[in-house]
Amino acid sequence: MSSSTKVDLDGNPIKAMTICMIGAGGFIGSHLCEKLLSTTSHTILAVDVYNDKIKHLLEPESLPWNGRIQFHRINIKHDSRLEGLIKMADLTINLAAICTPADYNTRPLDTIYSNFIDALPVVKYCSENNKRLIHFSTCEIYGKTIGSFLPKDHPLRQDPEFFILKEDVSPCIFGPIEKQRWSYACAKQLIERLIYAEGAENGLEFTIVRPFNWIGPRMDFIPGVDGPSEGVPRVLACFSNNLLRGEPLKLVDGGESQRTFIYIKDAIEAVMLMIENPARANGQIFNVGNPNNEVTVKQLAEMMTEVYSKVSGEPSLESPTIDVSSKEFYGEGYDDSDKRIPDMTIINKQLGWNPKTSLWDLLESTLTYQHTTYAEAVKHAIAKPTSS
């Protein structure tokens, strides 16, 4: 597609740019690469340690975007080539992070280093070389809602002012230091503050993205199949894994936490608007979620069980869920945020963006993909005798 035909939200032509995408091989990166290659004329310098999820974009050479994506196998922890790639690009997008809740407890040092220390050079290189940065943060940085500190039956708990999360107003409330679950949120918040300060003091052009549970094909991992056999993925992948293996879904502390979920393809549309509308996106922090898709984790389990039964043709288990304690599931030091509902005022005003896909539809798309892609692999993995 010729770049001259595309215009931004203000009617200005969008010039072809070079984008250095750190973490391009992950779930979000793979979808963003697909979208950029198929609908724009931008070039991608794809940086990651793995490229499994973008292999289909890198070969064969007959692909229509041949020459517009280069893969660089780099661990950003200790690689001097990173600055050179950032210098070559017009825009850097940083998606790299440890972002699996089970790790926040069991690997707090890795979590803090990955999300703060390792991100420092990226911010520094962008600032020093006058390059624009889109940095991926997390909805976790809000921590607990103000409402969660009120008694369970307090009427103000129902007041949106006490639980809707706003980029420019809501405080970031974390649990005590011994609750290591907050190591991730705290590291992510500190890098946000640093980026914001670089913008204020040194003129860094930045956009910060706070994703609220982005869901879709290629997300997370099924342990032992397309991810490490040790470790616990996030809630949706945990439930998918149980469904694929015909096991009951584990509800941590009764599954009372509330979450909103958004379809990856809706979320990618929002990111595309940020990429191509710097005048509207620079200096902004954007929630990207779908407040209409709110459920408790227990309701999510029930819905996924129903959707999976439809997708797979297999009957649901007689007891589809079991209760486990957070200590048993995540280990000592776990703590949780109660509700996560994004306020969408800022992104709507700046970029005119709204999510479209319903929770049922996004679950159906994701579970269909997982069932067809992984069912055989999971059967194979279960059937394969493990060597002791």
From TrEMBL:
CC per GO annotation = cytoplasm
Indicate the segments forming the NAD-dependent epimerase/dehydratase domain, all copies.
Answer: 19-289
Subcellular location(s) per record: Cytoplasm
Report the EC code(s) recorded for this entry.
Answer: 4.1.1.35
The reactions it catalyses are: UDP-alpha-D-glucuronate + H(+) = UDP-alpha-D-xylose + CO2; UDP-alpha-D-glucuronate + H(+) = UDP-alpha-D-apiose + CO2
UniProt keywords, alphabetically: Cell wall biogenesis/degradation, Cytoplasm, Lyase, NAD
What domain of life? Eukaryota
Q: What is its main location?
A: cytoplasm
GO molecular function annotation: identical protein binding; protein heterodimerization activity; UDP-D-apiose synthase activity; UDP-glucuronate decarboxylase activity
| Gene3D superfamilies with a match to the protein in the record | NAD(P)-binding Rossmann-like Domain
Catalytic class of the enzyme: lyase
Q: Which GO terms describe its biological process?
A: cell wall organization; UDP-D-apiose biosynthetic process
**Quick check: keyword Cell wall biogenesis/degradation in the entry?**
yes
Similarity section: Belongs to the NAD(P)-dependent epimerase/dehydratase family.
Q: What is this protein called?
A: UDP-glucuronate decarboxylase
Lineage of the native species? Eukaryota, Viridiplantae, Streptophyta, Embryophyta, Tracheophyta
